[in-house]
């Protein structure tokens, strides 16, 4: 199949955060130091070159950006300041927008203002809708729980599950596109069905443990990332399956509220630590922050804070204030879920474990067919030039003549 060349690809990627990748002179140092690159999955040098050549469809077929955890080792060692780690992050944003059929992801990643505006509009619509429901249904603002609550749990429950259905629909479509481009259409090797089954446990394993991230050697970043994800997932499960108990009170039901406090606290602490890291730029992965990183963390913080406020106000018997806080909370949580899960940063909760799974599925398929892992004709980027293996790549300290 002919490779389509997009001469404006690098310009486009700059909008997604890849500001320095043009400085790369392909020395291979980044690939040599990356703890996750190997002969089959060689990065970040190769995807950078693919992008510089304008091979957009080859990037569509690549899983490499998802195999990077942005430890920053490559950026620290790059002799040209090309920020390969940031390039991998930008490629993940770009790929997210390629999988998305609506175009919203592309719009939000290229314009922080558009993302904020969408958040505000969806938030106002959600808060206004719930307020109108409470007022028009004749329920009293001073009643927080029970069948006559201002916002009864069964109404919110139905709304939550409807929203989950819509989000799952979009994520399923986007994930199928990822699968088809990278694996299903067989750009590297035709995959036998047995390989899909054999590697299936990798999805929950990587989702819940992020053990690959642990291999980066950035223990603190790993723990913060894992803590944030697990806290969020715990709250998600509590809200989706135990909302009636979460909303009950004012007595504390420790069976669910205890877990909720732990997860809520975990979310608050990890979000604050992440925001502080980005503000102080102490770790390599925090030195470059895209607008979408800030928007996501601030929305998470506001969601967690308003959730806590609503809960505490109900425990102390201030039900009018608790209901007002509940409406405000829904005004943050709805846009966070509706816009971030399928179209923004939160989507990587699905894409990354899926990509890790597909990468191992392809490795298994190559092994089954007896194809050596390092075979240029099989490499998804389609670039036939030799690719330095981590062991073979030799760091270069000065740019070749003629390069900027
Ligand atoms: S280390 Fe070398 S190959 Fe990697 S981004 Fe920097 S200049 Fe490019
Ligand atoms: S940021 Fe870390 S994991 Fe990602 S490509 Fe660079 S060295 Fe590899």
Describe what you observe in this structure:
It contains 18 helices and no strands. It has 404 residues and is an all-alpha fold. It folds into 2 domains: 1-99 and 374-404, Fumarate Reductase Iron-sulfur Protein, Chain B, domain 2 (Orthogonal Bundle); 111-351, no CATH class. Helix 7 packs antiparallel against helix 8 (104-110), helix 10 runs parallel beside helix 17 (319-343) and helix 16 runs antiparallel to helix 17 (319-343). It starts with 8 loop residues before the first helix and ends in a 36-residue tail after the last helix. The structure holds iron/sulfur cluster (SF4) (2 copies).
User: Total helix count?
Assistant: 18
Q: Can you tell me the residue ranges where pLDDT is under 50 for at least 5 consecutive residues?
A: 375-404
- Provide the gyration radius in Å: 23 Å
Provide the number of structural domains. Answer: 2
User: What is the number of strand segments?
Assistant: 0
**Ions, cofactors, ligands: which are bound?**
iron/sulfur cluster
Net shape = elongated
| Overall SS class | mainly alpha
**Distance from first to last alpha carbon:** 33 Å
Q: What is the helix/strand order? A: HHHHHHHHHHHHHHHHHH
Question: How is the main sheet built?
Answer: none
Proportion of helical residues = 55-70%
The average pLDDT is 88
What fraction strand?
under 5%
